[in-house]
Amino acid sequence: MRDNDAYLAALRSLPDVTPGPVGVVGFCMGTRLAMRAAGHHPDEVAACAGFHGGGLITDASDSPHLELATARAEFLFGNADNDGSMTVQNVADLGAALDAAGLTATNEIYEGAPHGYTMSDTSSWNEAAFVRAFANLRDLYARTLN
User: Of the residues 13, 23, 38, 135, which has the maximum number of CB atoms within 10 A of its CB?
Assistant: First the structure.
């Protein structure tokens, strides 16, 4: 969290950054970091997105999904298909946690998109899923950040 705090402070210190809400996005393990930022900075983070995230629902006392209880952002999750780090049951449990927290959210599995589908320099690249993810991200930011 110290890193997240420092990232937000550094962003806020840039001369071209105007006051107001921010959006965060994570890929793979970065999704966990984005969720933590939204939970720890509910007054600042208005939009939180994660693509092919993994380990978002665990039994650990610091599971990322527990951050949803304090978050107020709108969430977008584009989950990979057939992903051992984020199973169909994990996706359903994440949806239940989002609902329990009363958050506005999109939590989808992108069929045919493997873990890592946004990375064009890997064998996981899936152009259709990539295009879908970034169109959804643009829409999320337009709704929440103007």
Answer: 38
Tokens of 92: 């359903």
Domain covering 24-145 assigned CATH 3.40.50.1820 in the classification: yes
Residues with catalytic function: 28, 83, 115
Secondary structure (DSSP) of 6-49? HHHHHHHHSTTPPSS-EEEEEETTHHHHHHHHHHH-TTTEEEEE
What is the pTM (predicted TM-score) of this model? 0.95
Which tens digits make up the pLDDT trace of 119-134?
999 999 999 999 999 9
Q: 105-110 and 45-51 as β-strands: parallel, antiparallel, unpaired? A: unpaired
